[in-house]
Design goal:
CATH superfamily: HAD superfamily/HAD-like
Strand content: 5-15%
Shape: globular
CATH architecture: 3-Layer(aba) Sandwich
Helix content: 25-40%
Structural class: alpha/beta
CATH topology: Rossmann fold
Number of strands: 6
Radius of gyration: 15 Å
Bound molecules: magnesium ion
Oligomer: single chain
Strand order of the largest sheet: 1-6-5-2-3-4
CATH class: Alpha Beta
Largest sheet: 6 strands, parallel
Number of helices: 6
Length: 176
């Protein structure tokens, strides 16, 4: 089976996903996760860093949609002042809402990437559809057993990326 869990690209934070990087890789649209990618679970609204990052992308002509597995109330409050196309309860790695987001933005898979913090949902969802998966470390993980188990499963794929790209420093983000 083709490896759909190893990230296509990794960055230490979403802020490093710049318009220049995206343009250089032919990416004109981002399907972005919210929780632990842009903000921790307990942060209900975007901060200035998030706003500045989104504004910079939009100024460069890059489209962005929020595609989240969290519920509608969380996504709507987070998006209230952003006004992005937003899809709660998206059931990633299901394809349905990723396809719908691309449709709403009027973009094709060939020019779109997924941005997220989880390999089993975000990376897998994107790569099974042929979209590059840009992965960032979780901002502040829940420390329960379920999340620790997920991170443990992810480590071998992060290690694969780290070795391939000489980024062993990223392993520190996947301590279990
Ligand atoms: Mg997430």
């Amino acid at each position: 089976m083709k490896n759909r869990l190893t990230p296509t690209y990794m960055f230490a934070t979403y802020r490093d996903v710049t318009p220049e990087f995206l343009a250089a890789h032919g990416i004109r649209a981002l399907l972005s996760d919210i929780d632990n990618t842009l903000a921790p679970y307990e942060q209900p609204e975007p901060d200035d860093d998030i706003r500045a990052w989104i504004a910079a992308l939009q100024e460069a002509g890059i489209r962005i949609a929020l595609v989240s597995n969290n519920h509608a109330a969380r996504v709507e409050l987070f998006n209230r002042t952003l006004g992005l196309p937003a899809f709660p309860d998206s059931h990633k790695p299901g394809k349905k809402y990723l396809l719908r987001a691309m449709e709403e933005m009027g973009v094709t898979p060939a020019e779109t990437a997924v941005l997220g913090d989880q390999l089993l949902t975000d990376a897998y969802a994107g790569q099974r559809m042929g979209l590059p998966a840009i992965i960032v470390p979780p901002i502040r993980d829940k420390r329960n057993l379920f999340f620790r188990f997920k991170r443990l499963l992810e480590r071998r794929f992060i290690r694969k990326y780290a070795k391939l790209h000489g980024r062993e420093d990223y392993m520190k983000f996947w301590k279990v």
